[in-house]
């Protein structure tokens, strides 16, 4: 015969404490003495007790769950960042519920509607846009929202990004210092502030030194589009000696085309610079020079801001930009005086 489900009352009896004490031990943010917590947790482990989070949410009004909406996971930056997000939220006592959505307003709005049915305490949008109707609804519902790696013109919406404009400027300075004359840019999607700001910073950095890009193509954050743009560049008379690519995911495709189809070697025949510094960027097969998005610091900022709004310690929305360094590797000519 199957044994009956272990309750908090059973744990309380085994540990020699009250049932409310057991509840406090398993409620994130509630402090009990270390000795008492150890006794309760040991009793719970022995009995096989699992706290009823649904029942707790009905009492506290909090599900301790954060909804995250992402448009795609093929970009390795997001898979790496989401792992960090999940780990950091769990350290704070929250679970994460991930939903996929196409990157257009109607689909995102529907997914948010589904998340609200799950009584999430807050929502993170990663790589997807937020419509004004959506933000108004969440404001009315009292559910905090934050954008991760996606800017927004509405300053009342919390957002955490890298310093994209400044990152683009760093790439321009680096390539010009290397003596490049024919610099092309395969940008991130220009419909998103992330791609637009990196492009604007890059072009501004060129302009300050009297230079301009020989070509700017919207790569749409797509490997296929970036690969096609690379073929088109070298099929034309432009013959660039350097390419700044709007993220590493596209830059890998650019390098693959240069090597396998065009028989050109990055760092020797043509310089390639990306943006993100995902783990693959340091692989010897790519050895990609790139602007690092400080994912750990960005994740910490997202969690601090979002949970601060949920718990009341950070009630005001903030736009946070976090600067990251240019990581110099072998895919681009290294200017004199620069070191890896």
What does this structure look like?
Helices cover 44% and strands 16% of the residues. It contains twelve helices and twelve strands. The model has no long low-confidence stretch (mean pLDDT 88). Helix 1 packs across helix 2 (19-25). 43% of the residues are buried. The protein is α/β, with parallel strands linked by helices. The chain has helices spanning 8-15, 19-25, 34-47, 53-60, 76-91, 105-117, 132-141, 164-177, 193-208, 223-235, 248-260, 295-311, and strands at 65-70, 95-100, 122-126, 145-148, 158-162, 183-187, 215-218, 242-245, 271-276, 289-292, 319-322, 326-327. It has three domains: 8-51, 434 Repressor (Amino-terminal Domain) (Orthogonal Bundle), CATH 1.10.260.40; 63-162 and 295-322, 3-Layer(aba) Sandwich (Rossmann fold); 164-293, Rossmann fold.
Q: How would you describe this structure in keywords?
A:
single chain; 340 residues; alpha/beta; 434 Repressor (Amino-terminal Domain); Rossmann fold; elongated
